[in-house]
Amino acid sequence: MVNKINFFTLFLFLISNYCVAQNTFVPDDNFEQALIDLGYDSGSLDDFVPTANINTRTNLDIASKNISDLTGIQDFTALSILNCSENNLISLPITSNSNLTELYCNNNVLTSLNVSALSNLKILWCDFNQLTSINVVNNTNLISLTCGDNQITSLDTSRNLSLNVLVCENNQISNIDVTQNKTLNTFIIRNNLLTNLNVTQNPNLAFFDCGLNQISNLNVSLNTNLRVFLCFNNLLTSLDVTQNILLSDLSCEFNSITQLDMSQNTSLVNLDCSNNNLCWLNIKNGTNENATIMDFEFNPNLSCVVIDDPSLSYPNWKPYPFSNFVSDFSDCTNFVPVDVLADFIGKSYTLPALNNGNYFTQSGGNGTRLEAGDVITSSQTIFIYNETICDSNETNFTVTITNEDYFIPKYFTPNNDGKHDYWNVIDNNNSVNNIVIYNRYGKLLKFLLPTSKGWDGTLNGKLLPVDSYWYKIVLNNKAIITGYFTLKR
Questions:
Q1: Average pLDDT, the chain
Q2: Average pLDDT of 255-265?
Q3: Less packed terminus of the chain by CB within 10 Å, N or C?
């Protein structure tokens, strides 16, 4: 009798173990209910799911199910794609799910994530968790990694040679090396602690966002496939995008950039370079009419912008209105005010006070600086030079010192440049009565009084050719002086 009882007890034990062995323990009611909804379990909640119903499943989507515990996921041994995003998971026991190729666990409360056993993993999205690190060294097949909005301080992608997408924004990363990620197409590392970043080894880079860091130097000259480039809120003082001819969007606001040349960016649609220290901006690329956003506001030193057509109005651009549009970069100096003085011929010349600029004896603010009130007693060219923080402008005038009663110029250049446009005799002592001008054949061209502006090189409104012309000067004492001068153009 005792033996029969022992045998029956043993039988029940074996049957119980057999039944348990054919079921997977799933303690989280929301997880089990999600599996019931998917048809992988039936009946009421009992913390068990038939293992045979899950161990061949390759795809499991349990996003947004308010799940806190994924115990039981280890028996999904054939699982290739797992989406458990937007739950309340604090851990993820997936070390046994070695067939996983895609893992979406973003928007949980994970503090750690072990994917080292997932050698087949190609896509890993773990954004919006509480991770302080993520080790993907063993995931050599990874093509897409998004781990933004965590607390990650470092990230090693040196062995992820097939990586196309890397998104790690809103973390605490101070250094990252992507030089081994030759196939990288999308790189978003906004709002971290970077002070430098090397993307010269990423020729396929098309979307690049490194805004909200502390980068002071950035070379994108080799990223010729770049379409969208966001580098706002950094410490950049210069930026060269002349090689990025496919660039459609550039956001570089809130830096300290002093000049920006967008003349080669014929695909440009959106540009925000506001809040910099721009001295000049060249957006003359032939496609200004396609621009949706064009913002260069809050650049206090920017007095000149080179564009396709300065005659047009651009009400959608900022700032609006902007009056200093030009079509040629050389015209930008025109917006630096500088005084203009006429040439002088006489016995001495006292420099008048200036409104804009300073006197110098050489071009470019060089030589000796002269002051208003200085008396000039020797013939020379004097330069008036003015500069702003961004640019400079200059004029000059000639002082000819002579003790003669009158001065007869040897040539003049009537080309409307403000220099030697008229020929006339300078009468220092009112000794000249009148002046007559002839051509080389003796034809009368002009009669002048010494007080007139002079001859402009025309006859009946027509320009006369470059040549020598003759003069006859009649003095008040009836004496006559003759000679010739040259007309140059």
A1: 92
A2: 96
A3: N
**pLDDT tens-digit series, residues 129-176:** 999 999 999 999 999 999 999 999 999 999 999 999 999 999 999 999
pLDDT beyond 90 at 407? no
What does the pLDDT read at residue 21?
Answer: 54
Q: Of 14-18, 21-25, 100-104, 139-143, where does mean pLDDT reach its minimum? A: 14-18
**Structure token digits, residue 405:** 């009663």
